[in-house]
Design goal:
seven-stranded mixed beta sheet
Length: about 300
Amino acid sequence: MSSPQPADEPGPEPDATAGGPANTAGAGSRPPSPDAAEASPDHRYLLDNARVEAGERFAWLAELFDGVTRGHFERLGVRPGWRCWEVGAGGPSVPEALATAVGPTGYVLATDINPVWLDPHGGYEVLRHDIVGDLPPQPGTFDLVHARLVLVHVPDRARALATMVAALRPGGWLLVEDADTELQPLACLDEVGPAQRRANRLRRAVRELMTRRGADLRYGRTLPRALGAAGLVDVTAAGCFPVGGVACDRLETATVRMVRAELLAAGLVTDVEIDAHLAAVDAGELDLTLAPLISAWGRRPG
């Protein structure tokens, strides 16, 4: 799959964070939560959408997980006429799939704190929106609200979840999919040599950076309980665990390139280690894997 490209090359935009984005018309804002302010000394999103590598990551994440996500949409009965909100959409693949499923009689809203990779002519509405700092758009009206690999990065997860639940109509479904990196923290399951050990050291370094930015690397396992605590019923969950293949390799390359400067600045790895790892990935020497993706869904009573 080729990388999606934005209409204009992403430039040096201000760092968009879950704690304080610029607001646009139609996205009402609210004051930050005191709990969120104390959750981490640095809330900047590590995998910033403004970076060119973000488009590559979105393409390979789509290759790895879109089939899983579409399967859940089918299971929940997404059909023509439904109103759907894609939260923290990132790339265009999921909003496009939803737009196809709901047809011309339905409606899809795709939001992101930096929607540079979304297509405003893609058959869905695009809105800049902060899931923590802004009020829910069109509350009480959506048949489906979906977020994938979003809440794990948001320090005030409970508030974000409440915003999504508030957007559901009675009987509407919330589907949240997030990683659980602590459940499976390795880049190479079969640590047979120095290249595999180096890959796992780099994965630990990236995890450390994410933790410093407020990510909860155990969040995936908590989703069933979190959805129930948010007042949803008929809560169910499943997991997906990709192992090996080109998509895992290309995602790893894009991610390491994206956070290289931060890894070096933090003193977690060296230039030599990063170059050797990227060369091993490019040569196909590693069977790379990812953390499990936990998908959980529940229905608003009514």
